[in-house]
Amino acid sequence: MAPSPSLHAAQQVTDLIGRTPLVRLNTLSRPGVDIYAKLEGQNPGGSVKDRAARRMIEGALERGDLPPGKRIIEATSGNTGIALAMIARQKGLQLELVMPENATAERVGTMRAYGATVTLTPTAGGMEGAIDYAREQVEKGEAWMLNQFGNPDNPQAHYETTGPELWADTAGQITHFVSSMGTTGTIMGTSRYLKEQNSDVRIVGVQPTEGSSIPGIRRWPKEYLPTIFEPQRVDRIVDISEDEARRMTRQLARDEAVFGGMSSGGAVAAAVKVAAELERGLLVCIICDRGDRYLSSDLFTRDIG
Q1: Does 209 carry a binding-site annotation?
Q2: Is 273 a catalytic residue?
Q3: pLDDT digit string (tens) for 40-58?
Q4: 13-47+157-294 has which fold?
Q5: Annotated catalytic residue within 49, 179, 212, 264
Q6: Which of the following CATH numbers is that of domain 49-145: 1.10.1740.10, 3.40.50.300, 2.70.70.10, 3.40.50.1100?
Q7: 277 in helix, strand or coil?
Q8: Is 263 assigned a ligand-binding role in the annotation?
Q9: β-pairing, 95-100 with 117-121?
Q10: Alpha helices in the chain (DSSP H)
């Protein structure tokens, strides 16, 4: 029986991806300078990566890129893997996800709950080690890789969805877009769209200071820099320390009831630094995911000093 046309319900979970809410951060804003947070944890898979994962999988299927019967393999720090696991199962696809073994139990467990195979690589090798393992499996002909770090569907997802949503929800008043940089898909696609609307919108990327470890934000070695990254699309890069990101993540949860991960705290910390230089502005940060994905870690408990 076909659903009634008057039924207000999605027909599949992937229909719920995007159109996430925007909220003012009242304790961090001041008259004339507003900081807003886009709550990407409201996506059904719990993060901003739902957008790119859907676009990459659907794009590969539409183009016929995925060899029939071949399993997909992808290196991930967590959120992309969760999103891919959620969507791949709905498409009847086999998926193996590769990540460093220090990934939080919540992330690994969620991927497996969605039906994906999870392979953990040594912590010492970091994400680079996970990427190398996935590439080796592809070279052996045992799997096919979406390659989020070089797949144009990654930034395209944000050009088609995140950028237009921000422009519409701020009524075109956005002056700064602040985003953590991991695969760089979010900042690349959103930058392209916003700059087409108003070339004066400033695009601010966030990366860790030397020696800092912030899940979801990378300071890439040159040989591993995502090929989708176009430096000219970023007007400014702000370095944020691990302690700064931790403090802001906790502050957001306590004072704003915005519960995100450390990369979200890093983005907001960078936005606060930029806002301090302005007399007027409307800044938007990406809250990449939800804080409950990190409760088994020391994000909310470790003494920062």
Answers
A1: no
A2: no
A3: 999 999 999 999 999 999 9
A4: Rossmann fold (3.40.50)
A5: 49
A6: 3.40.50.1100
A7: coil
A8: yes
A9: parallel
A10: 49-63, 79-90, 105-113, 126-139, 153-157, 163-169, 185-197, 242-251, 262-275
* pLDDT (tens digit per residue) in 54-97: 999 999 999 999 888 899 999 998 899 999 999 999 999 999 99
Q: Are 17 and 51 in contact (CB under 8 A)?
A: yes
Instruction: Give residue-wise pLDDT tens across range 139-162.
Output: 999 899 999 999 999 999 999 999
Instruction: Based on the residue annotation, tell me whether 49 is a catalytic residue of this protein.
Output: yes
Is 191 marked as a binding-site residue? no
Beta strands in 134-252 (DSSP E): 144-145, 176-180, 202-208, 236-240
Does 190 appear as a known binding residue? no
Contact 148, 80 (CB under 8 A): yes
The pLDDT mean for the chain works out to: 94
Per-residue pLDDT for 103 more than 60?
yes
Question: Do the annotations mark residue 43 as ligand-binding?
Answer: no
Catalytic residue among 180, 191, 212, 263: 263
Verdict on whether the full-model pTM lies above 0.85: yes
What's the first-to-final CA gap in the chain, in angstroms? 61
Query: Tell me, what amino acid is at 59?
Result: G
Residue type for position 42: Q
Helix (H, G, I), strand (E, B) or coil at 14: helix
Annotated domain spans of the chain: 13-47+157-294, 49-145
